[in-house]
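Notebook, bench 3.
Goal today: get a predicted structure for Cytochrome B from Pararhodobacter aggregans so we can plan the truncation constructs. The sequence was checked against the plasmid map this morning, with no discrepancies at the termini. Length recorded as 192 residues. Pasting the sequence as submitted so the record is complete.
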Amino acid sequence: MLRRLYDWTIALAAHPRALWALAFVAFIESSVFPIPPDALMIPMIIATPRRAFLIAGVATISSVLGGLLGYAIGALAFDQLGYPILQALGKGDAVLEFNERFNDLSFWPVLIAGLTPFPYKVITIMSGWTGLSLTTFVVTSILARAGRFFLVATLLHYFGAPIRDFIERRLGLMTVLFVVLLLGGFFAVRYL
């Protein structure tokens, strides 16, 4: 089933309305869909590098709006929708334990999930369920999703098709390194 969804998403990259498809995929990925928008975004940018930043902007806006849907699911319908979605992702057991610490961590879970391959939908639903400040959620989501999508767009825009394979194989490692550098920067500013 996942392979079919992935193939469907890749086929959308060549469609004349691919930007609308990207907006849709980025929106639903933030609350329920298992395939990240990168799978559609990367081939779209490779095909039209001059539109890289428009494509990243559409993915960012749509993802944050979809994140608000995930937040609403967590806040308003956790038992009916949120928990079953998290169970389907294999995160059901960890939810109750994580709830104890989630809001104490403030914006960090949203930032890290928005930048890394960790399922962003888990954090959007958890943010609503735990009552994380909506302002904190939105601002952090914008920073995280823009950081992720514009990083990919910038690399593809400037380095072209050869970077595609590198990104697809090492996106998780690259974003984890980016988070480590970001955290190191915050640490340096605070303690040095």
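The mean pLDDT is 79. The chain has one domain: 2-191.
Flagging this for group meeting.
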